[in-house]
Amino acid sequence: MVNLLPFIIILFIIAAFMRLDFLLYILYVFFGLYLLSRWWVRQAMQRLRFTRSLATERAFLGEKVPVEVEVLNSGLLPLPWLHLRENLPLDLHVPNVLQRVVSLLPRERETIRFELHGWRRGYYAIGPLSCRAGDLFGVTEVVRQGANWPEIPERKMSEIEEEMKKIFERLDQKAREEGLDNLKGYRLAIEFEKKGYEMYTRFSETAGSEREKRFFAALAEEEEKHLEALDNVYHFLTESEDWLTVEESKVWNWMSA
Q1: What is the model's pTM?
Q2: More confident call, 5 vs 219
């Protein structure tokens, strides 16, 4: 947005020097509108409240996750126009940017609904949601940016990426050195899930907020389920008779009484 203040000051000096009363009056009015619009938009933007809710914080491959982003104008000043921009991972949504232009009256709320698609396994951050608003005359424009989901510090994000990179490199090197058959492949997968479980458990224990702690605890729980499933298949392939006995006792538990 072009800053009109220097232009107004120059015209004011010219009008005062040439004693153009009508132009001075116009400049007074325009300058008043300029100050009012700046104050209006900034005050209204400070009263905006953002809420992002997901149907679930984890999904399996191929699943769809409904998402709602709610923007509330909690103040008493209306917003003539508001440009909402939600940034999304390309692996979960195409296009990776969702945009909407709305106007909000006092106490009015706007809800954006969309779906994320579980096309690829991984950890993804959603956001940030950015808002751009202005007045009807195009004099003032204010930009405000919301938080990512989940709200995890950038340092922790870098730590996760570095840790995952090390795990993949170690397991890839091990696979190249030993060669893989079916059983070795399962053992490698079990080891990978163990590393992931340990990593997410550690991040959960050192989390800086309760929400961050719950998020990493949920990821650790998911890794534990993967580990149990792989361990169950490996047990079946290597010790079939023992596996059948154990599984049968789960159904006919009176046999082990």
Answers
A1: 0.58
A2: 219
Structure-token match 């800086």, residue found = 208
Encoded tokens for 73: 């104008």
pLDDT digits (tens, 9 = 90+) for 138-158: 666 777 777 666 666 555 666
SS3 letters for the chain?
CCCCHHHHHHHHHHHHHHCCHHHHHHHHHHHHHHHHHHHHHHHHHHCEEEEEEECCCCCCCCCEEEEEEEEEECCCCCEEEEEEEEECCCCCCCCCEEEEEEEECCCCEEEEEEEEECCCCCCCCECCEEEEEECCCCCCEEEEECCCECCCCHHHHHHHHHHHHHHHHHHHHHHHHHCCCHHHHHHHHHHHHHHHHHHHHHHHHCCCCHHHHHHHHHHHHHHHHHHHHHHHHHHHHHCHHHHHHHHHHHHCHHHHC
The single residue listed with the structure tokens 């994000």 is 157
When mean pLDDT is compared across 17-31, 81-95, 242-256, the lowest value belongs to 242-256
Residue ranges and CATH numbers for the domains of the chain are 1-149 (2.60.40.10), 154-250 (no CATH)
Percent of the chain with pLDDT over 70: 74
User: What is the dihedral sign for C-alpha 231, 234, 240, 241?
Assistant: negative
- How many other C-beta atoms lie within 10 A of the C-beta of residue 51? 12
Q: What is the dihedral of CA 129, 215, 200, 206, to 10 degrees?
A: 90
Residues near 109 by beta carbon (within 8 Å), at least 6 away in sequence: 70, 71, 72, 73
